[in-house]
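hiii, so i know i said id send this last week but things got crazy w the move. better late than never?? heres the sequnce for the chain we talked about at the cafe, plus the structure i predicted for it. fair warning i was half asleep when i ran it
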Amino acid sequence: MVWRAVKDVSFYALVALIVLIAVFPFYYAILTSFESGTAIFRINYLPESFSFANYVAVATTGYFARNFLNSLIVSGAVVLLSLFFGVTAAYALSRVKFRGRPALLLIILSVSMFPQIAVLAGLYEVIRATGIYNTLFSLVFSYLIFTLPFTVWVLTTFMRELPIEIEEAAIVDGATPWGVVSQVFLPMMWPALVTTGLLAFIAAWNEFLFALSFVISDPKRTVPVAIANLSGATQHELPWGNIMAASVIVTVPLVVLVLIFQRKIISGLTAGAVKG
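okay and structure toks below
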């Protein structure tokens, strides 16, 4: 009985420690974002004063509001394209029999193994040659490189677990392949779609290297680069309050999305893990 109590206390203590390590940086960023002046540099773990001056400064100075909208546009487009191409590719890889199908799936997944810096130079030449440099479409195009492989892999695994009898019944009723995908499979794939879509959104929302390299106009930049540009005139006068406020603004939408779709995310990540 004592050993069981010790195990329970140890478990909850470990969980509390993990939560503290994960949540504390965001909590301290929120705390700092409401402070100004020398209060920013004083170490305190409880709020002493609340001021929205940093948030007002971020929203009214420069192009941050427009950069925020750019991130929404780019991330939303990446999610839609990733899911569209991912669902169609998953149907072909899971239902259509053709030579080299397993090898093709491995090749698709292996694309995501390359670090971004390894493909930066070649991708830069492609974007310059196609005339989409310094446009939001260049970011959408480049982000699909690391969102599509994961999307295709997860959706293919999920679609393989769907009963083939449902597809056969739809085909007997006269459904086309696209009809099977859109009317039969999509309603059953919501957990996987939400999971892959949200992960693609987070990846596109937080991406920095491609956003810095392929867009040079401040009004067309996304929020990660916009936050980096809040460095001030000199290195000794960094506007930490503004940086923390901008970081909170950028992080809140992701937290809200994860909290809203957490059940779907868990279902999607565990799809195909246990075959019943």
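btw The chain has two domains: 1-51, 62-269. thought thatd interest u
miss u guys!!
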